[in-house]
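Reviewers asked in the last cycle whether our approach scales beyond single polypeptides. To address this, we selected a multi-component target totalling 223 residues and predicted its structure end to end. The input consisted of the following lines:
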Amino acid sequence: EIVLTQSPGTLSLSPGERATLSCRASQSVASYLAWYQQKPGQAPRLLIYGASSRATGIPDRFSGSGSGTDFTLTISRLEPEDFAVYYCQQYGSSSYTFGQGTNLEIK
Amino acid sequence: EVQLVESGGGLVQPGGSLRLSCAASGFTFSSFWMHWVRQAPGKGLVWVSRINSDGSSTTYADSVKGRFTISRDNAKNTLYLQMNSLRVEDTAVYYCARGGNHFDSWGQGTLVTVSS
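The resulting structure, written as structure tokens, was:
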């Protein structure tokens, strides 16, 4: 099973700052990597798929990069509504795994 | 608008069974792979199972293999998860989600609590 490790576990930033979230895979997942945002009491929302393609309706302050084993989600300028938990997810060999999540909190 | 609405959750004793349903609307259900993903209270997301568009192929996480069965009725636009031999560690919110390599639409989830 491919393990995804997200870092940091918690990221404390202020609105307007830039956020950089990392996701590392235990083996190559090519570009089969997605990012989700989840707010308390809500279902996850797809942000990025294919490592770097924004999902429908996602603001362009969200961007994804990387391939193989190292991936990054960048939020260029944080808005108040961006503070949430973020998960990466991979698909490979008919199995899917999620990272443990990064909690993006207001500083 | 894509809508996925789960139902069937509740309180069940260890060793018991439950069947979850996910009613889909707003898209051509029979064209999409579907999944179940769960989230234990205060924990992260865990993929459970997936089924292809015509129901001929299914895959399961090791933790549920042999106990859970995913199925679909394309005529009723509904996805199912039959859960048998439930364990305390199966307690979670269960989400249905649409997609192939990633999950582009999610339901609101249904809570399953396994407790004596």
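Chain B has a mean pLDDT of 97. We regard this as preliminary and will revisit it once experimental data from Aim 1 are available.
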